[in-house]
Amino acid sequence: MKYRRTLKRAKRIALERIEILMNLAEEEAKKGNWNRVKRYVSLARRIAMKVRVRFPKKWKRRICRRCNTILLYGKNARVRVKSKCYPHVVITCLECGRIYRIPMIREKKEKRKNK
C-alpha cells in the first residue's frame, strides 16, 4: 500500500513540476530566450519519462519533439489545413523542419452523425 501511495504522490508532484516548467518556457518563448525554452522543455520531458507519467495533452501538441522548442504558431511554427487525401492539420516547426500531421477524423464523424 505504501508503494502505491508514494508512486501516486510522485506522479502528482511530477505533473505540477511539468506544468511550472512549461509555463516558464512559454514566458521565455515570448521574450525570445530560445536556449532557456529548450532547457525547460527538455527538463519537463525528462521528468515525465522518469516518473512514467503522460505529458499533459495541452502541451503535447505544442512541443517539437526533435528540437525541444515550444511551437508558437506564426512565430516558429506554420499551421496549414489540408484536405487532399483526408482532412488533416499540418504543423511545421520552422526551427528544425519537423512536420506533424493531425487527422481531423473526429470532426468528419460528427458531420456524418448530424446529417
From TrEMBL:
Catalytic reaction list: Endonucleolytic cleavage of RNA, removing 5'-extranucleotides from tRNA precursor
Cofactor dependency: Zn(2+)
EC number(s) stated in the UniProt entry for this protein: 3.1.26.5
Residue sites binding Zn(2+) per the record: 64, 67, 93, 96
Cofactor descriptive note: Binds 1 zinc ion per subunit.
GO cellular component, as recorded: cytoplasm; ribonuclease P complex
Pfam family, one: Rpr2
Functional summary from the UniProt entry: Part of ribonuclease P, a protein complex that generates mature tRNA molecules by cleaving their 5'-ends.
Stated family: Belongs to the eukaryotic/archaeal RNase P protein component 4 family.
Quaternary structure note: Consists of a catalytic RNA component and at least 4-5 protein subunits.
The protein's name in its UniProt record: Ribonuclease P protein component 4
Organism: Methanotorris formicicus Mc-S-70
